[in-house]
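Subgroup meeting minutes
Present: P.N., E.W., G.H.
Scribe: E.W.

1. P.N. recapped why we're keeping a running log of single-chain structure predictions: easier to compare across weeks, and new members can see raw inputs and outputs side by side.
2. G.H. added today's entry (378 aa).
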Amino acid sequence: MTRPDTPTPHLLARQGPLRSDTGLLGRGLSRRTLFRGFGAGVLAVAGTGTLASCGTDGATGGGADGGGEASLGEVTYISFLPFETLSFAAEMLAMAAGHDAAHGIDLGYEVARGTSPSLQAMIAGAGLVARCNTVDLAAARAQGQDVVNIATIARGPAQRINFSKERPITTAQDMVGMTIGIPSEGGSTENNLRLTLENAGVDSEQVNLQVVTDNPASWEMIQRGQIDGYISSPDQSFLLLDMQEGADAIVLGDLSPVISDRQYFVTTDQHIQEKPDQLRAFLASLEDAVTSMVDDTDRTKTLEALREENSFASLDNDSVARSALDVQVENFVNDEEPDPLVTDEEIWLASIEELVTTGRIEPVDAPESWMTNDLLPA
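Output recorded in log:
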């Protein structure tokens, strides 16, 4: 397997209060169009520094198979990573299996490099929907942005810490004095790691952080002693374990629970007022995708549909893909929360309180106004 060049380590200092990196808006956007089924589109930066609106004005789309008419037109989803990980299996399946066309929309997506740029792109009108966790949403609200949680897509911890069996990580205390690799500075992963450490009674300043790639190439840095472990998505972790006999991993959330480590589909109050039907159709198509994955107990039909339009390392490896999809399904629904996409208000309020208690945000008035289930299918 050809591996990317090993990145130069970047030692991170402890982060201050949460922020929204609006300065990354233009620089962080991918220029590669990722639309499926309709015309080319690029997240463009206008001369004033704002993003041009992209494909949400009710234009005719191509439907699931590139033909026919989508009555509600194009809907653009802004992703913070390329669709090269099964962490976005539900979004990919909504397009690949035609759930979008079944609800009258032609769903496409664009990539912004990082959660904050993806939120800023969505706010600026480059798309209707983005995805983030509680920390990211709180950071945007702290900047005066009217970002709203409209659905819960992931209800549990999924990210994993990869390490060598020769120096295992089994508790948060084990990481004291270690150097842990993360995919970006100041993002969701760093915030979740620091919260995990602090909830376990560990001063996060005692753990060094370095920016590394979220793929098995970072294993070489562990072998050379540059880092002691690195955090990755489940499928990248399973891929590493499949490739390297000396590797092991643990779910980050198993070290210490973090209530705010949940993923949401988000939009803005303005988008809700102007495009409610498109948002409802988007969520209906995602609910269908999630339900079909849950019902597909051996994941065969899901894999067949995904592979018709996608190909990347973890998807193409059968055992890795099935394990990664199992993790996704476990995060979609559980015994306490059996309804796909519904946000439990008590858990939502508890996650906001966790951020307040740990000093990451100021006390919030009416945090329930930051979420709604009203756009979900009845």
